[in-house]
Structure formats: C-alpha cells, structure tokens
C-alpha cells in the first residue's frame, strides 16, 4: 500500500510510524486507521522489527478524530462503524508483541490522545498539551479514553479531564502519570529512540512476556493476574535467552542476547 496519511520508516530494529495529515493537524480519519492497520501488519510480520515509535513529528501529535468525517455520520450505525475501526486499530497497537513508544509534540487531543493511550510508553516535549475535549461538543470519547485513562492516572483525575474537557500541559501530564517523561522539543525523537534501545538491549522474549503479563493481568483480579504472570514466566523457562541471562549473572558479565 502507498501511504497517504502516515509514513513508515525502519531503522536499527525500530519501526518509526509518523502520522501525516499536516493540513488537518494529523486528525485521525478512516483512511489513517486503514493505513495504521496495514503498517501494524507489516511490523508484526517482520521479525527484525523489535519496537515501534509512533509520532506526529515536531509540531503536533494529533488534534483528534476527524470531526468533519464524524459529522457526516447519518446514523448511529455509521458512528459505531467508525469507532469500531478505531477500537480495532488501537487494540492492535496495544496488544502488539513489541514495545510501542509515543513521541508527542504539540497537541495531543481527543482521538489523538486516545491513540497515545494505546501505546506502552509516552514521551512528550515541553510544549505538548493533552486533553479529551469531547464533552464540549456534546460527545464523550469514542476511542477508549473512558477506559484507558482511569486505569492510567486514576478514576478521580480521569473524570476531571473527561467531564471538564480541560487540557493539561506536559509538566502536569508527567506529574499525574499520563506521560513517562518530558524532554526538549529538539530531542524528542532521539529521546524516544534512546528509551526504545534501552528496552531492546534486553531479552526480546522477556520484554514480550512482561508486556503480555501486564496487559492481560490488568483486566483480572489479583489471584487470576498472579496465575497469568506465572504462565508468562513459565513460557520463558526453556528459552536460550533465559539460560544466557542466568549464566551471565552467575559469571558476572553482561548477557549476550540475540538481536531480532
């Protein structure tokens, strides 16, 4: 597929996905959802890609879902169809068996914020701003914010953002746990790459298992979650990387893991 609303670049084991609708502040429309899905299929199939960085570039992450397209929905079925597509792509991003880091500059609002919430980690520039302003136009978020945001920052703080539609700046987003860290705008992509490579130096099987353990366990009670964790750990036991990690520890040296 020739991409029109995103770009996909591969370097040093990383897939760098960039939203690209600059005239619409990278608003997420149906075409972008289709292209993101295609790109994720490409990334899933290529064993050499061990991690993903999702960004909108240096000026804006995404101002949200394309309101022009949503306003064209004539029936509830039309609206549900659009958001089913969004849910499917966001869930694929969330469940990707590789770490996904959102590199966020400028506006990260509405559906754009929901897209970032589906990523594993978030790095923001000091000029970034976040919000779910749907309440201001008589709607609520449709891309998962009512579910992911409380799990990330707590119910009370999430309700405040959802019910007021207020924005928070990067410093506040870091304070409440919406983003992992804030960096100068000029170093955004390099900071995201550095974090990705810090993760990817470890056993890729262990990174995958850790993500699966957290993502699966968060929807379970504590007892079921602990059993799920045990199964994820069991799967690592026979692997060469687990054996190498233990041996390296015993020999007081740095482990040598296979590259993806």
Jot down its keywords.
alpha/beta; 6-stranded mixed sheet; 260 residues; 2-enoyl-CoA Hydratase, Chain A, domain 1; 3-stranded mixed sheet; 2 domains
Describe, in plain words, how this protein is organized in 3D:
This protein is α/β, with parallel strands linked by helices and 260 residues long. It has 2 domains: 6-200, 2-enoyl-CoA Hydratase, Chain A, domain 1 (Alpha-Beta Complex), CATH 3.90.226.10; 204-250, Orthogonal Bundle (Lyase 2-enoyl-coa Hydratase, Chain  A, domain 2), CATH 1.10.12. It is built from 11 helices and 9 strands. It has helices at residues 30-45, 67-71, 76-95, 110-117, 145-153, 155-164, 170-175, 188-200, 204-217, 222-236, 240-250, and strands at residues 6-11, 14-19, 51-55, 100-104, 107-109, 121-125, 129-131, 167-169, 181-183. The strands form 2 sheets. A 6-stranded mixed beta sheet has the order 1-2-3-4-6-9, with helices on both faces. The protein has a 3-stranded mixed beta sheet with strand order 5-7-8. Helix 5 (145-153) crosses helix 6. It is globular and about 60 Å long.
